[in-house]
Specification:
This protein has three helices and 13 strands; from the N terminus they run H-E-E-E-E-H-E-E-H-E-E-E-E-E-E-E. The chain is mainly beta. Strands 1, 2, 3, 4, 5, 6, 7, 8, 9, 10, 11, 12 and 13 form a 13-stranded antiparallel beta sheet that branches. Strand 2 and strand 3 form a beta hairpin. The longest helix has 15 residues. The protein is globular, with a radius of gyration of 19 Å.
Length: 287
Amino acid sequence: MSRSLATATAVAVVCLPLLAACGDDGPEAGDKPVIEVTETGAEPRSSFAYDVEVGHTETTTMVLDQRIDAGQVADSPPIEFVLSTEVTEVTDDEITAVTTYTDARVTDDDDPTAAQVESAIEPMVGYRTTTTFSRLGELVDSESEIPAGVTGQAREMLEQLGSQSESLTVAYPDEDLGVGATWTATNVLELNGIEVEQTARYELVSFEGEEYEISVEVTQEYRPGDADGFEVTSGDGRTTGTISGTTGSLFPASSESRGSTSVDVEAGGQSQTVTTDTEVSVTTEVG
């Protein structure tokens, strides 16, 4: 498999779990997460729900550092995305927000691939998603606006970015929780036609006032399927990290995660295992 195809394959199948968010055979893509509490935690316990008003704004900076091995190692320079979010509608049950990617750049100008990567991510500026969440952080609906003229691999990357920004919110259970509480959120993501079963396991490490700290482990299983130019036969992934923030913000004040995926693909009569190591950091400022 050529380096270019291997890299494109990795970009297309790698889901970046930023520490989120059924049929008879299990959950299907687009279904709401199935949330299950395993421990309610110590007293005192409190209910969790996002508490924002129309006009609330946030600026989120997300830094992605990725290493791809598909027979040839491709170390991508760290990439920084800046997202601007505004809450446009609030009801008793739901929150609607518009998120726009206002900047995308390579943070290491000395990297020999910096110019090439900058050119590839430039179309992402202006990408916009309108997302509706429940008060508990469950995804209800999402619509994307991809800038005119963006096609091919760049378009696929933008579609994945929509899934990533949606997963920045934590899905809370509908019951009171105390320190030590644990719960899971299980759903299915679809990336470039490939379905990925994802389970996030949360633990409430601390909670005081509106401020919380949560540890999380995300596991993934890739379902076999055809994508654009290759076939995924199997794959799995695991990511761990911590999230801290307040219930008065949609996105975390800070989040750090580290994970890896291993995906078996076939393309052009060749079989290849694509492994990806990813580190993601997120910081958010209100206003």
